[in-house]
Amino acid sequence: MLVLAVALPAVGALAVWGLRRRPEAHWIGAGAAGFGFAAVALLPVGRGSGAWFAADGELTGGWWHQVAIDWAPSLHLEFSLAVDGISWTLALLTALLGVLCCVHNAIGAERRAADLLGADRSASAPLQVPAGTFETGGPPQGPDRVLGLRTGDRASAPLQEPPATVETEGPSPAASRAGGVPAGRDPASGSLQEPPGSFATGGPFPAAAPVHGVPAGAAGDGPESTEWHSPVLTALLLAVQAASTLVFLADNLVLFFIAFEAVLLPMWAIIHRYGDPAARRRAAAKFALFTVAGSLLMATGLFAAVADTGTADLGAIILHGGVSGDASLLVFALLALGFAVKAPLWPLHSWLPDAHTAAPTVGSVLLAGVLLKLGTYGLIRVAGGLAPDGAAAAAPVLAVLAALGILVAGLVCLRLPEIKRLIAYSSVGHMGFVVLAFAAGTEAGIRAALFGNLAHGLVTPLLFFLAGALKARTHTGSLAALGGLRLAAPALAGLLGFAALASLGLPGLAGFWGEAFTVYAAAERGGAWLALAAAAAFGAFLAAAYLLRMLRHVSHGPVAPAALGIGDVSGAEAAVWAPLVAGTLLLGLVPGPLLDLFSEGLL
Amino acid sequence: MRVQAIDHAAMLPLYLAAAAAVTALFAGRFAKGACAIGLAAAAAAAVWVGLGPDRATFAVGEWHSYVADDAAMGAAALFAALAVLVAALSGRRGEEYWFLLAASAAGGVALAGARDLITLIVALETLTLPLYVLVTRPGRDGAEAGAVFLIASVTSSATALMGAALLYAASGTVHLGGLAAGLGGAHAGLTAAGAALLLAGLAFKLAAAPLHAWAPLVLERAPLPVATYLASASKLGGAVAVTWVVHFGLSGTASAGVVVAVLSTASIAVGNLGALVQRRTVSLLAWSGIAHAGYALAPLAVIATAAGRDQAGPAASAAFAYAVFFVLLEAGAFAALTAVRPDTEGGLAAATGRPLRPATANGTASGTADFPSDTGLPSGTGDLLASGERRTPGAGLQPGGPPESGLQASAGNAAPLDPPRRTPLAALQSGGPRESVLQADAVNVGPGGRIAELAGLWKAAPLPAAVLLFAVIGLAGLPPALAGTFAKVAVLEVLASSAVWLAVVVAAGAVVGLAYYLPLARVLLVGRAGRAPRRFAVAVALAGLALAAVSLAPQVVLDFTALSR
């Protein structure tokens, strides 16, 4: 099952790439990702007690499952996989995001195909999804979901707009096609009735029409090239998924390094090939160089640990308390430097905003949801596990950097004009919380770090999906050019609000536990840590400020020209986002089981 | 006086390789077959001997001059196999070509088993000497390459000999096994000077800085199959020589470690910085090869410290393993490149060196006649090759041929000009008017061509493109080209335990390397496909298979590269 979890996406990547000319390639990819997800999801079946016991002089039993095949003993390389509560949750998150990205991609491709067919008839193909699929969009998103249904129904009636919509949207053909919005009936937004007159600010409709009047895919994939939903992208996504899963499951340090490196090329290709044309090359190059620099430093640290302990078995080294005292600080410094690039920790974060902004939506989702987790997972389990003494010694430095990162990210986000960049920078802040919690080093801190890590992996991908949908609809990510989403696309605005609230740590949603306990863990240590806790708390306040600012710009106010006549959430999109919404709520309301999983993990 | 018994089984690979050379010299039109079969047999024999018990012969006291252990036979098999690959990539040549190639390979096989300084240097010279002729393409540029290679090589040989002499003076023996013992109480300054001169001279073959400057120039201008050989087998020769000397002879000498550390860091810095600005494929590979020479030398530097000297065995194994992975990747890259570049050698003797000059159809002699006299040997060798070419049936330059064939030849001469014309983008990117670019290309671009000409190769010729891509990614050290990753892991594992600062240098170099390997990989994948010849499919496929094999089962390489005393 362990091997399957890694092999299925990898085989799927090859299959999709091999069949890239076939129309069903996307669904093969989604299927492979789905099977991979199932394989990961089944891992807890038949797991051990979680307690370590000695058998034959070896400690065993702590891993749920374990598999080891010799590969290159001279290099200490063993194809050795193992899973426990900590790695399983992250592998599950990876697999989930992999499935969602593949499905997102497949739906995008289907929609494009439908657009190309229906463009002549000016059919509203982008939103022609059978109403039945709305059943799958089952998050408890009451009002929004109702609106989504309504919007979908409306959209499938091309050009025959009900009078109400014509009132609000104006007579622009593009606007009417893309689906009207029952602005006045949005119960989610507090202020209901916008006077019709305010729509005059929507500007001259004929002038706006060409902007949105892309004949095909007005609500789909606007500026991207024809290859945007190419099966090759799906293949690359699967490759990233396979390699990341391998990182989380690797029980051998050399294998861990190889898997860590294997993530790089597909991700580079995703950014480089499918990213935003203006910035992708630079961003991809920056991403690649930063990542390789980090991973080679990390490799040096790993191999120093291997040389010190004489084995590359991660579990064994952790159980024996890591490397010996003298080497500990060096090993930890090298490892932490490497993982800090990936995590990213201020001031090594500068690749991240560029990469996220330039990457396509699915790329950003994987970057935020998976790649950053590689860094934090490595920091918590590998760096912390291999060199606990070094970690303790270096904790103040890490904590100060993390707190600074939280503050800097918050302040920068307050002024950022672009939505994807803003979300990307907010990741720096969230990862700052994770690192701060880890640096605190107490049990509460480690759990908070793991929890915040996972929560960020659910919330930020959702934000990126939403931002991607928004950019695809409005063709702009500029906060200044957006506005009135609440009226133009209430369900989308509602989801965005939900995700933003989750991200800023509203109690009851996933983001809360990680950040609250980070502050608690830091404050628990007392002394100068209190100041760091205060800084983190202030950072959380800043997060609230900038996320609400984003919401104000995007959702509220009069409808901006760019947001005119955009379609609301389609059923397919809702289906893709639903698991993330559900997961966010679940983690927020019932954090207990997850914390139990963490507590039996090996650290 | 007792006559020593010679272990002929240990010598079998060398016998076979030498026999291949001699047979090729006399086999006439079957020279190519004789060369390839003989060398393949030598490789097989090396594997067979290597699988058996370790053998040694030519003993003086307890030290042997020729040893056939796993590492030696692995290296010998690799030398022979690389020469076979080059032979398969070479197309039609005169029979001298095959003789020279086989002779060079025989030198490599001898080098692998050499365990004393004299044998080592003689073997290395045997490996290098035929290359003076082989690198020289007829024409002025080719002659320049030959002259540069000759002068650099002779200089470095003299340096190495001087170093060997000093070490002999210090220790009283030339056997590598004896050096370790003999240098114990020797004069430290003498030892250091000897080690420095010897290692610097040997590192020339590896194209390590500071004796690296020949490599880009010679590789760029040599015929591509010969460039393949230079970049793979010849570099392996340098790596083997340095590794053997350091591991078997100088592993207790701290000054040797310092020398290697200097060579290594200088190579990494110079090679990477030089590669950053290259726009031609072969130049890029050549400069980056200098950096790789630095990575390969880096593990040997651990003997500079006392703590590292405990690690000397694993360190030398890592250096050797890196060299093996590296030359396999280089061979793959150059083989694929050879396959997709237009054939500029096939029989157009003098003309290809100066494609802009139209009046070369009839004359190899006229092509070489106007050389300055100081390059006498290269022009002579140009004649030698050319006369070989003239006898080749497919050359289109049969003696006294009709004027049509001359025309054909000059039409063929224009071939190197074609690719730049097909890719106007390249001209635009380099800035400046097209004419000047074309002119510059015609004068400076060797048979490897510009990187931009490889655009869209993926669509035009998937197999060579896949091999080239794999090799380039492997040279960058990234999965899924695991051969390169394993090489990097092998080096970093040693360095992380005993010389962390050098590991950081290697890591920094690899990061810079990414800055030029990734664009190269990108060029292969995207862009509109041009015409690309598709030749030597079998050779390229075999190179690709070899790379895939060592990627999946690195232990095959790591087993024989594990050095024992």
TrEMBL record, chain B:
Keywords: Membrane, Transmembrane, Transmembrane helix. The keyword Amino-acid biosynthesis does not apply. InterPro entries: ND/Mrp_TM (IPR001750). It is a multi-pass membrane protein. One of its GO terms (cellular component) is membrane. Residues 114-340, 451-508 form the NADH:quinone oxidoreductase/Mrp antiporter transmembrane domain. The keyword Membrane applies. It is found in: Endomembrane system; Membrane. It holds the Pfam family Proton_antipo_M. The chain crosses the membrane at residues 6-27, 34-51, 71-89, 96-112, 118-135, 147-170, 190-214, 226-250, 256-277, 284-307, 319-340, 460-479, 499-524, 536-557. Residues 346-433 are annotated as: Disordered. This is NADH-quinone oxidoreductase subunit N.
